[in-house]
Amino acid sequence: MYIHIISTVRNSVKQIISIGNTTICLQSIRDNSNISVSPMCLSMKYFGLFKKKKKTPKVKADAADGGGKTIVIPQPAGTDEYDINHSKAGVAIIFNHKHIKGQATRNGTEQDRDRLESALKLYGFDVSVYNDLTFDEVTNTLEKAAQQDYSNVNCLCITLLSHGLPGQVFASDTYYPVEFLWDRFLGDKCPTLVGKPKLFFIQACRGTNLDAGVNIMFRSMPTETAQLTYTIPSKADLLIMYSTYEGDYSWRNSTNGSWFIQSLCLELEAAAQEDDVELIYLLTSVARRVAYDYQSNVPNDQSMNEMKQMPTYMSTLTKVFYLKKKPDEDEEED
């Protein structure tokens, strides 16, 4: 499993995003780029990702004594799947930043915002959209969200559409550590989200590196006792997906939107036509689509031409999570 450790050290914006005598976020150079997209990739067969493991014996270790909290929730510890039968499918927040002080305008972000809002509503999410908030406004919005009662909600989903730096993302007036988005929703700070998936999608650059890709050639080849009260880490049940690999650019088209968010929406829309879809399977399909179907087309700038992008995610999910599509209005439950 890949674990990403986020740096909170503030870097010089000018140093990171300067090229020659131009001090702008290089994402602006990509705004006018044409994108070549290959035909839709084939659906991947479902593969088993989660299997029960035998209970391991307790081992004494030379470590600090943890003062963890014990939360009582109605789902037994031995269950393999997250409960998706609450009265509300989920709460979603979208922070959309088009105009950022000192940065290039993020043309095309409206396409990401609107399509993602519609895609999440297919699954019954209550979606709130915020445009061009300052850092203080982002802080207030997150604080209010963390104070809500999520007892009857399946999950929380927060998406950021913005510029970014290594370990940092932008509000409309300044940048801040990316982990600021989820810190207040951890189990020790937001009790009603304990044992529930907390999803975060980050569409932003993570550095200035370009991925030229690698040419490849295809060659054919010949139960445990359930408990109602138990202790889990405060950082459990998180999933954080980034549009690009650490240190790399994140591509966005000024007309069609970003590769990552558009791929995420396409997979969400397609899955909504089928039965309930498992989250990790869906996100693997998103990563595959971005990796295989997209390549930059900037023939007038060979340093930016024919580049690739690789989304990544960090997960502390402890169960399988199925996205349950919203029932049609004409459907009735027995």
UniProtKB/TrEMBL annotation:
Which GO MF term does the entry hold, naming one? Answer: cysteine-type endopeptidase activity
Q: Which PROSITE patterns match?
A: CASPASE_CYS (PS01122), CASPASE_P10 (PS50207), CASPASE_P20 (PS50208)
Cellular component aspect of the GO annotation: cytoplasm
InterPro entries (alphabetical): Caspase-like_dom_sf, Caspase_cys_AS, Pept_C14, Pept_C14_caspase, Pept_C14_p10, Pept_C14_p20, Pept_C14A
Q: Which residues form the Caspase family p10 domain?
A: 228-325
Give the UniProt record's GO annotations in the biological process aspect. negative regulation of Toll signaling pathway; neuron remodeling; nurse cell apoptotic process; positive regulation of neuron apoptotic process; proteolysis
Keyword annotations for this protein? Answer: Apoptosis, Hydrolase, Protease, Thiol protease, Zymogen
The source's domain of life comes to Eukaryota
Which ranges carry the Caspase family p20 domain? 88-209
Q: What Pfam families does the record point to?
A: Peptidase_C14
Concerning its family, UniProt says:
Belongs to the peptidase C14A family.
Give the protein's recorded name.
Caspase-1
Give the species: Hermetia illucens
